[in-house]
Please model this.
Amino acid sequence: MFGWMRRLPWDDVRFFAPFMGMLFFIPAGTGGIINASFQLNSVIHNTLWVVGHFHITVGTTVVLTFLGMSFWLIPVTTGRRLTKHMNRSGMVTTWLWAIGMFLMSGAMHILGLFGAPRRTAYTTYQDSPQALSWFDGIFASHITVGIGGVVLTAAGLLMFYNFIYMSWFAPKGHTEFPLTPDPDDMVTTPKYLDNWKLWGAIAIALILFAYTIPMIEIIFDAPPGLPGY
Model:
């Protein structure tokens, strides 16, 4: 039943990096549900949880997806090959980024549950017992956040090296990226489904339909006593 998972290209950074991003989106999406809940959000609002949430969504899922995609796009656009050395370097970059974000974002989430506020400097609030607990833990600690940031910095520097190498120093050539072929009995997609002008116009119409009346009411039916512009 799950034998197909063993056949996935786990050693190919072009697959592995986006896969890790999707894997991180499982807890990220769960945190989003908590943020969208009125009752639960009242507990974590304006805490370090919110910062950790954005790091695990945008800073992990999105970044790892683009990271993996760059190992395909850069060689294709520059006419160079993705060498084994560069693939290994990309795998190391992916692991470093995943580990660093796990430490930093995970610690942020737990610190937020312990009441650590967002947008604060390194302080103990005059040695408040609650604030001191934000530095004494093993995983739930600002120090763990800093360690994760150091690992992320190393991953970022390595990715910068990868970009420079793939853009200018990788050998010239072409690297195939394995894709599943279309089945012989595949149904042809109707052309109107791929019409960007049509769907763009529909999207604009829906936006106008949804926001025009509320915006007019906000502008012309302001609460009494509201100062004018």
Remarks:
- The longest helix spans residues 48-78.
- Residues 3-169 form one domain.
- DSSP finds eight helices and no strands in the chain.
